[in-house]
Design a protein that fits this description.
With 696 residues, the chain is mainly α. Helix content is 64%, strand content 5%. The chain has 35 helices and 5 strands. A 3-stranded antiparallel β-sheet has the order 1-2-3. Strands 4-5 form a two-stranded antiparallel sheet. Helix 8 (162-175) runs parallel beside helix 10 and helix 17 runs parallel beside helix 19.
Amino acid sequence: MLTLNLAQWSDLNVVSYERGLDLLREARLDTARRIGLADAREMARKAGVWTVVMGQVTAAGDSVLVTARLFDVASGRQLHQAQQNGSRTADPRPLFDGLTRQLLDVAGAPSTISLGRLTETTTESIEAYRAYLDGTRAMNRWQLDRADSLFALATARDSGFALAYYHRAMVLGWRQVGDSLHLALAARAAALGSKLPPRERELVAGYADLTTALQSEISGDTLTPQVKYPSAQAHYAAAVARDSGDAESWYGLADAYWHHRVDGWGKPRTVENWNTALRAFDRTLALDSTFYLAYAHKIDLYRQAAGQTPLLMLDGDTLRLLEPATAQRGDEAERLKAAQRRAYELAVRDARAWIAAAPSSNAYQSLALLYFTRGHADSAAGVLRQALAHRETHDAHTAFQLVYAESKSDPLAALRSLRQALRAPDVHGLELQGSNNLIEYLFGAGAAAAMTGSLADVDSLASLAARTVEAPGGLGLREDPRTRLWPLGVRLAAGLPARTVGPALAASIASLERLPKGRGDFLRAQAVASLYVSYLATRDPRSLALLRAWRYGQGPLSEIDALAALDARDTATARAAIRQFPSADSVRAASAPVSLPRWIARARVYEAVGDLRGALAAYSVLEPKQISPLGQADPSWPLYARSLMWRGALHERLGEREAAIDSYRRFVTLWAEADPALQPQRDSARVALRRLGVTT
């Protein structure tokens, strides 16, 4: 209450209530019943301020006495004392209005100061205000479901409560950017923000502009972001200019530059914005080492410089783009590789700093994702197990990420972990835990069910995803269409007859075709993996046409071109396409991530032209630890298991008995718990083993 009242005085820089909660947590005093002057002064020094207020509330009979004391941080000397008393059962906020006026006396504020009442700044409803304060504390602890409920209660009790709308919008934005309610709440907060203190007014207006820009991009509107991003940046810059020690304002400024891709992803002007964002994120964390969202974005920037944006180089603490010809020169190519290694190391450093400063499931998941990008699934699994070992960082998202990590080394063990995760009590609260990546976590874990042929577990995951993954905003959808498409693609990849899957798959694809351009483009691009699987299974020209169209300007698919040429009996074109295939030996030696359906297609092309050794080499790069999903809902994982059977057949044709036996055995073991509909394939592998003299 004092924070908001004091913040109305434009010549004072006041540490926000939310920042105060962070400082208490950093000092491990967030659950302390009392705080001494020494601890208070230390927190004030960390916040970069010169005075600190301490006080107490004393109840006696029907009265309450509130005392506030102002101390000099450097010397610990008491500068001023203010007191107010009133009825114990009355709204306490007028007491704090009076305390504020008394405390401002020491700053030389004139007695005629025009200072608004706290109820005007916040709400006339004490019940709404209590819910708001409780919601802020829950948000600070990343209890997003509780925070959302409390902010909703606050606005239900007072429909004009700007700060409650603002914070609820932030909570929804952390769960799913682009939700229509998220945009409406941010706009409502801005419309009601005229009575807020200057800092809060700028933050609310900046956030409304930022959410509008993000929503417009999702809908395919290219004009609105050109206006709203700069406007958001201006609001946050004004807040920073007013108080250069305000971490939340610095974060907002950084966020507004990070998302403003002026000339496209990884283009020169966008990279300039990324540099501005990186410096502002650094400033945010220098002010508040627990500001978890700043860690997340900094790590994203470092990941881009670690190879995700190929020509982006971290030069010192500045990002810069290399010209393609320059990047290919020997000395510069080596510098780029060294810079990419350093960017990865900095990302890991910040992820570990995040875990140390503000332990959360998101922090552990971020570090695990970095390990995944380097093919270190075992290290990722270790980090995720650490998160699950602590109550405060344990959540169902992490359990599903761990299943994916385990599937890289032991799919059958991962299947057992998946079944435990599906039965866990907290699985029913998945949608409340706040993540824009929930579908990726669930279908990543689906690799364990898909590789082992457990279609019942595939369906359980798809059903869970349909219940918990929010439908993309602005498209009028009741559910995310990928939750229906993924299990159908898995069935095709597992070898079920196309006639049993085709009609439902065609209907699902048709629903994606009907989505408008802009908003629908992302979902169509995410359907590419299912189209790839469909084409491999059916060689349907329509699947091929959509596959090419929905990749939206990405590079050519030489293996698909080769298959299409073979279907047209054009062997010359197919052989020309083969020359564009990457070397399997080089990919295997580099331990580079590989796309499962693409290498399956390459193996089939080699086999079709009679190059059995080439086909085996293509299959040899396919090991779970190296396979990288094609999008957030890749259904192709059963192809890995079936590739073992196909490898066995190739070895058998080449007279390599031991290698054939090994491949067939691995397939039989992997599909030990496969669905009955898939048993004919397992039986075929057993027949092959008996043919080779092995008793099964």
